[in-house]
Inverse folding.
């Protein structure tokens, strides 16, 4: 449900407007010094904050919403560390939700936002936190980034590095044009999707399990659990469908039979454009309420024009959580 | 490792040339009459057998190898059933491996087949069953089909139906041309990839978990665990990257925020062409041995020209196992 | 590791002298109003606080140490509740460790307390929080009581009640003499063990799993996980060894073949006396240090004279967590 | 449900009168040569067979029923082994139920045996295999012994030995008198309970988890899952309740704070007398039927007079499964 992994376990909690989001990380080996700066840097990337430039400039640069930039991400550490070194006990942390403005969402108390999880949550639970998406909000990914950053440090100590990057926005694959394209969608009150590629270097061969717990299966599970992600492929992937066997087999993506082969691990994932855009609402004019009535819908331009931009460190975090879950990695000298 | 699910659990066992493949299915509700004909029919689809036509015709029809058609798939039921009705106790079954011809694989005792899992298994275990891929063989999917067929019956009793079909072979998307295309690759000693679409109807809304256990995450995990599968997407998927938010949000794929929305569930998956083709071997001429030496490689035309053809019932089986794992479904009247 | 349950999951965190102890409770059904007073009352029982009498009097009454009475137990709720009602999302909470006085434990920074977990923690982790037992401290049970109290409310809504009581102290089985006996041990700087009986009423028949997950197996697992617990039995238990089959079978303890039979569930558990008493230290005079050297040991009379007294609400809490983990109970109307 | 362990997983299947009982053992490291003779010897102990004496003599010697001695225990290995060496893949095995005589149980098709699991199974599943206890039969423990014997070999390779023995029958603690006492109960058509002590030598210190997964908690869970077991204690156990802290702390039982301390691990468990004795039936005269009617009950003297005798190798098997589940043990050189 809200836990990920079985030997290196991250349990996540928090709604977008509860007191805090946070998590508990269990199974972290004892004696590791945690670099808090690295965690902060990843949280900044997730928030769309550029540490060297001023934030206003950056907002327009990558279509990140002003709301995201204002997010508070200060991590409070509750347990599991003594003088900055892991004790082997659960590491609990929280990030306060200081920027709570439930009045912005008052209109949704009794209505569902189109193409959002509002209606499915109501179907499942019969109750929901209508303030900003509640548990379904992407705010929850901040906790993933904290946990994943701890995992990344553990992996780095074993020589394993993870690097994700945005490789496509709409049908554009040249990164130098991404900024302009995203801004043009934002200017129109619209949004656009993106594709991220993630590569992992330094993995030993022999990692993964042959049948159900193939490495690619765990990666797909982890990546598809990220909000707005609609697909995952690795190696030759979907594009490999057109290549005959004599060619396609050259691109393993780093995995054969579910187990690493010692080459670079490489996978892609696609993020849909956010559906909560002014343009989308203008087209629909109204929203379907919980009790079947129609109400007028209106939405401020609060969302990112391309959510894939800020998903990059989340993809890295989830990849790190998958890999740190292998005791083969955690326990090797 | 070799178990799938946590409340409706399928444990799989068997190498391609051990005494048997089979499994144990735990968590099946008591009192369900099992239709053995349906299971046999799905096993026939997986083996490429056509129940109405003669087998030779069919072989050429869909590029299925003669070896596959000869596979024995008779299921022996060991426990969990009394007079054909489930007892609520574990259902164990096995399928004997009668067609074992290890001498066909003698050449691979000390060498690794290129782009197969031979080398990664050796890296992981330091030992492997070299006879026909051992545990990594697609023979293992027969057990998945048996277990999945039981799950499908459970779901059918709740009004939920699963239907997968091949929608693309190479760059061809017109089914009436698939046969010819596959045969042309087979004739050249080559192979080609394919894309399968799977749809599920009758699902209640409210199914799935919001954070890590989103329904799409579990489906991706299940599907990517199938041999030769290289990717998964749902709803607008990878192709949706080019559509702006105001359009793309129309295609949920049946899931919002990880939870079913009551519409048809729809996902795709891609299967790579098998790398063990005569043409591939002719190009490479040789194979890398376990101890670094080079040996001449040779392979009979024993593999399917398009493994996606026979993966269709396996995709249905894994989908059924994912859905039957939801106690919301199993327990509802 | 630090999580309990699989569908109603309690994840615990915190050292005795970290910033906080606390937990995350996952799988709580949505729409349940939580009674915070009940939780507070259980925390008071665990701390040895008597809500009607003044605390000083009570300390001597049941041999609870003054340190325990001073413990802060104010619960801060972080997520999962909206206006006091559960959302179906994880309920995270913490209790600050305000009473931290690491200087009291300075002597143990480089030495191990006899018959405590200090040495085994060091063996396992190579590092430990030497301040007051760290993770091994009974302080951790405060979080169990909070989580268990939520579970108890859920169960109470289904008509299931849990009641534990101290039935033996030393060889004394008459409750009216417990107080005096415990005080006599405390006066001598010594401690004594106790036996708790726990009964559950209102359980439906048919609860439990037949083989490994027998109800008694889960209860034993839960109860033996409590600090200082050395044994568990149910029904006729250890004492039944002397009764022939024609008599003993009358005492099922509420479970047959691992499954509830609809009668009162009844089990016992035994708690050893705390080993950290002034008398024990006086006898030993010294303690073995981490590096093999001998140091003089000295200890204030900070521990309870009979830890079983305060274990009573912890036994109830763990029993509630076991039972709430059954979806049969959680989901029934 | 029917699986035990999470990294070294034993999945059990089979009813007493289905085609077979058996199991799948997952997580066994590759490259271990399995000694089948050791497994056979443990199955003989479980069946009450004495390998050196003739079986008739032995029956009267320890009160084992003639039915038990006739049990077939030939193990058929299905997968996971190549030339007697583990492959790292699941080891599946079965034992055929050749001695099936359902007519012996015909009387119980529509009635429940008193103090047996018949009624609770019916309450849980609404259906049951009435032939000899079905899944609840102690026949299932044969599969546990096979799996546990594999685990024992794995442990023996690491220098860890497990030894259980019967230390009490009724109130008799002198082994030389056990035989006579059990026979006297058998002669009267009655039965008696017993206590088993199990000791483990060679365990490294630092094994176990501090909070919920304390080693004693896992052992209690495993042992209480054995049919007819009513209690578990370790170290000073229930008897320690009368010893003051200054004495009792000398008896750790090999575990401190849930983690091994490097000394001998020692625990006890108690087994109730079987309730299905001629004397018990004579006293009751009748049994309560499924639909509330009363029928005359009659039972042949088919049960053991002291089930604890044959539980000894089962206690060893479950202990081995608990310990082999620790990756610290499995993976160390």
């Amino acid at each position: 449900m809200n836990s990920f992994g079985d030997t290196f376990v991250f349990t996540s909690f928090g709604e977008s407007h509860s007191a805090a989001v946070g998590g508990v990380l269990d199974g972290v080996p004892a004696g590791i010094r945690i670099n808090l700066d690295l965690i902060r840097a990843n949280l900044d990337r997730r928030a769309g904050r550029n540490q060297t430039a001023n934030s206003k400039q950056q907002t327009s640069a990558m279509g990140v919403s002003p709301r995201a930039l204002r997010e508070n991400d200060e991590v409070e550490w509750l347990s599991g560390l003594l003088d900055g070194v892991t004790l082997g006990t659960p590491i609990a942390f929280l990030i306060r939700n200081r920027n709570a403005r439930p009045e912005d969402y008052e209109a949704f108390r009794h209505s569902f936002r189109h193409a959002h999880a509002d209606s499915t949550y109501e179907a499942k639970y019969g109750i929901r936190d209508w303030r900003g998406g509640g548990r379904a909000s992407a705010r929850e990914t901040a906790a993933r980034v904290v946990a994943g950053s701890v995992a990344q440090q553990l992996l780095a100590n074993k020589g394993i590095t993870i690097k994700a990057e945005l490789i496509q926005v709409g049908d554009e694959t040249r990164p130098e044009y991404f900024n302009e394209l995203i801004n043009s969608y934002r200017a129109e009150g619209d949004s656009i999707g993106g594709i991220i590629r993630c590569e992992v270097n330094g993995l030993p061969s022999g990692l993964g399990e042959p049948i159900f717990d193939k490495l690619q299966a765990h990666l797909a599970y982890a990546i598809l659990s990220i909000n707005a992600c609609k697909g995952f492929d690795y190696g030759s992937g979907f594009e490999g469908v057109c290549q005959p066997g004599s060619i396609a087999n050259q691109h393993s993506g780093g995995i054969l039979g579910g187990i690493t082969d010692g080459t670079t691990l490489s996978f892609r994932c696609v993020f849909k454009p956010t559906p909560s855009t002014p343009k989308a609402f203008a087209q629909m004019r109204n929203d379907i309420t919980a009790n079947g009535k129609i109400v007028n819908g209106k939405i401020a331009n609060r969302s990112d024009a391309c959510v894939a931009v800020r998903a990059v460190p989340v993809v890295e975090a989830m990849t790190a959580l998958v890999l740190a879950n292998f005791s083969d990695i955690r326990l090797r000298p």
Notes: The first strand of chain D starts at residue 3 and ends at 4.
